[in-house]
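User: Sequence in, structure out. Go.
Assistant: Echoing your sequence, followed by the structure tokens.
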Amino acid sequence: MKKTALLLPLAFALTACFNTAKDSDAPRATAFHGVFSTSNEPAKQLFGAVKEPSQQAPESFGFYSKGCLAGGVELPETGPTWQAMRLSRNRNWGHPVLVGYIKRLSAKVARVPGWEAMLTGHASHQIGLDADIWMLPPSRLDLTAAERESLSSISTRRARGAYVGENWTRQHMEVLRLAASDPAVARIFVFPGAKVWMCNNATGDRSWLRKIRPWYGHHYHFHVRLSCPDGDRICKDQPPPPSGDGCADAQGWVDRILNPPPPDPDAKPKPPRAPLTLADLPSQCTSVLHSR
């Protein structure tokens, strides 16, 4: 049997401090009540500059796009059924539940005929519970560091995401089904045409389709979001998807792609959103930032 692997360029924007201590020995991050920062620097710059490990117990704080991770753990660069990508970015880290999920999923995907890869990377990966899985099935388990920097995924859409493209296969649906069927998963984002295609082609138990949600982009990869781990009290879950399989909603996305509504002539342009600062994040994030 041909050996397959998941390619994983994991990206977690605000997980700059990583844990090397045993969980039982590491203190928990606590709320900080002093001065956050006088420079008003974007939080991503503050966290991105930190290279030393956080000696704290693993815990996610805040929401997926507005939080941080204490005690992140490293996904090994290469495993029996995965490869981490974009190693120069030092982003193959996450909450232990995410690393465990990737290992479980990669072992299952390795049994899907023709599938070889999973890649990850996204700007909202702040609390260590998000991962992007590439649509590209790689053919080797021994990619060099240089190849992991230069290799790109493949697009699986056409017509701006209204339909799947020539690179889409039934195996992509099987990988997404496996990814969504894990109870740790809260939702998965993929381009609308893929969701509609799966709605039209999935047979048997279709309950996993509820977790597949249409979203902009997401044709070079799909985005997995896990639920907050038990015990992470400051972690904020996203509301669960509406009941049902979500297929009518996905068709609505496709309809709007093919026939966009006319622009509102009275709409005012939205001002650009200011970058998050440390003061915008849960107070525990200051403890994470300064823990050594």
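User: And one key feature?
Assistant: The chain has one domain: 6-143+152-261+277-290.
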